[in-house]
Specification:
Number of domains: 3
Largest sheet: 7 strands, mixed
Structural class: alpha/beta
Shape: globular
Helix content: 25-40%
Order of helices and strands: EHEEEEEEHEEEEHEEEEHEEHHHHHH
C-alpha cells in the first residue's frame, strides 16, 4: 500500500480550501498529500454566496451586490450592506482555480475513486476505496455521515434544503444591483420557507426556494413554488438555463468529538457549517486557516476544536426552530426590520463583542428564546 503524510477523504469545499491553505502556507512542500473523491469536480454543481468586506477569491466572484432585499408579508426593506458586499462564486470556477494550483504541486495527487472506509491503526491510518487501499499519518475527512447526529436527541437536526433555477427572462424584471436575501412573503405552510433571488442582469437570476425544516419535500413541491414566484414577479416568458439542488445540515451536534489523534473531520462532517444559517464558504475560509495552523503545531486532533458563545447562540436558535418551525420567519423579521444589517452580518460571522451580541439578540422574539434557554439549562 502506498503511504502518504495526509489523505483527504472527499474533495469538496472544505478539503480543497484546506489544501489551498496548505499550499500558500509554504510549509507542506515536503509532505505527500492525496485527495480521494468519486466526483472529479468538473461541473457547476453548486453556488456559494457570502458577505465580505475584503477581497477573498475576488478573481472568481461572478457577481457582487451592495444591497439586499428582505421581505415578509407585512414589510420589505432594502438593506444597505456597507461595509460588506454580498458575493457569488460558482462551484465550477472555484474547482478550476484550486485544481489549477494543485496541478503545479508535485507532492499533491488526486484519485477519482469512492472512499469506502478509513480507520486509525495505532500511529497510522488506513483508507480503503473501491479499488485499493492507502496508508497515511493523517486522515482529513469531509465525507458527511448523518447517522451520529440523527441517532441522538440532545441536539436538534434540521435541514436547509432548496432547489434553484437559473432563468433567463424575456421581460426585464430584476434589479441587478440588489439581491433578495430572504423573501418570507411566500406561504409558510407550518415551516420556515423563503425565496432567495440572485439577479445577474435585468433578465437573468438564480431563484431558489429554501426551507429550514426537519423534513424534505418532493422535487415537484419546490419547483411548483418557484413557478408561482416567477409568475408573481411578472415573468411570463423565460427559459431555465441550469438547475441546482442542495441539502445543508443545520445542527449544533459536536461532530468534532468524533476526531481522534490522527483523524480530523472537516466541513459539514466536522461542524464547520454555520449551524443557524447553513452558510459555509466564509466559515470554511476561517476554519481551514485554523486547521493549517494546527497542522503546523499540534499532533492530536482531539484538541483541535473548542466550543464558544456562538455555538451556544446557534444551539438556542435551532431549539426555537425545532419546536416552532412555523415561527422562523418572525425571528428573521424581528432582526432585519429595524436592525443594523452590518452588525447582524458581523454577528453571523462570529466577530462581535458581547455588547454587540446583546444588541442583536435583544431584537429577537424574547419569549421564544427565554423558553429555549430555560429548557437548555437542564440538558447540557
Amino acid at each position: 500500500m502506498k503511504h502518504y503524510h495526509y489523505i483527504f477523504a472527499g474533495s469538496g469545499l472544505s478539503a480543497l480550501m484546506t489544501v489551498y491553505e496548505m499550499i500558500i502556507s509554504g510549509t507542506f512542500e515536503n509532505k505527500s498529500i492525496l485527495l480521494i473523491d468519486s466526483d472529479s469536480k468538473k461541473t457547476n454543481d453548486r453556488t456559494w454566496c457570502f458577505w465580505d468586506e475584503n477581497q477573498a477569491f475576488d478573481s472568481i466572484v461572478s457577481k457582487k451586490w451592495k444591497s439586499a432585499l428582505f421581505a415578509d408579508t407585512e414589510f420589505q426593506r432594502e438593506l444597505n450592506l456597507h461595509p460588506y458586499q454580498y458575493k457569488m462564486i460558482r462551484g465550477s470556477d472555484f474547482y478550476k482555480l484550486i485544481f489549477d494550483v494543485i496541478s503545479k504541486q508535485l507532492n499533491i495527487h488526486f484519485v477519482n475513486q469512492k472512499v469506502l472506509d478509513f480507520q486509525e491503526l495505532g500511529n497510522h491510518c488506513v483508507v480503503k476505496t473501491e479499488a485499493q487501499s492507502f496508508t497515511c499519518n493523517t486522515v482529513i475527512n469531509s465525507i458527511f455521515y448523518a447517522e451520529s447526529a440523527n441517532n441522538q436527541t440532545t441536539y436538534p437536526f434540521l435541514h436547509q434544503h432548496f432547489i434553484g433555477w437559473f432563468i433567463k427572462s424575456k421581460e426585464a424584471v430584476f434589479n441587478s444591483n440588489c439581491a433578495t436575501f430572504m423573501d418570507f412573503s411566500v406561504e409558510q405552510k407550518g415551516n420556515t420557507r423563503f425565496m432567495y433571488v440572485l439577479p445577474t442582469s435585468e433578465t437573468e437570476a438564480l431563484i431558489e426556494y429554501t426551507l429550514f425544516s426537519k423534513n424534505l419535500l418532493a422535487k415537484e413541491e419546490y419547483e411548483t413554488e418557484i413557478q408561482k414566484y416567477i409568475q408573481k414577479l411578472g415573468i411570463t416568458d423565460y427559459e431555465i438555463i441550469e438547475k441546482e439542488q442542495g441539502n445543508i445540515p443545520m445542527t449544533a451536534y459536536p461532530f468534532w468529538e468524533r476526531n481522534t489523534k490522527n483523524i480530523v473531520n472537516i466541513g459539514s462532517a466536522g461542524g464547520w457549517t454555520k449551524a443557524s444559517t447553513g452558510y459555509t464558504f466564509k466559515n470554511t475560509i476561517k476554519k481551514s486557516k485554523a486547521l493549517v495552523k494546527f497542522l503546523n503545531t499540534g499532533n492530536d486532533f482531539r484538541k483541535f476544536h473548542k466550543k464558544d458563545k456562538f455555538w451556544f447562540y446557534d444551539l438556542l436558535f435551532l431549539d426555537v426552530l425545532n419546536k416552532r418551525n412555523d415561527l422562523g420567519h418572525k425571528v428573521f423579521s424581528a432582526l432585519f426590520q429595524k436592525g443594523n444589517p452590518a452588525l447582524i452580518f458581523k454577528f453571523l460571522d462570529e466577530e462581535t463583542t458581547l455588547s454587540e451580541d446583546l444588541q442583536v439578540i435583544w431584537k429577537c422574539p424574547k419569549g421564544l428564546f427565554i423558553r429555549a434557554l430555560f429548557a437548555r439549562t437542564f440538558t447540557l
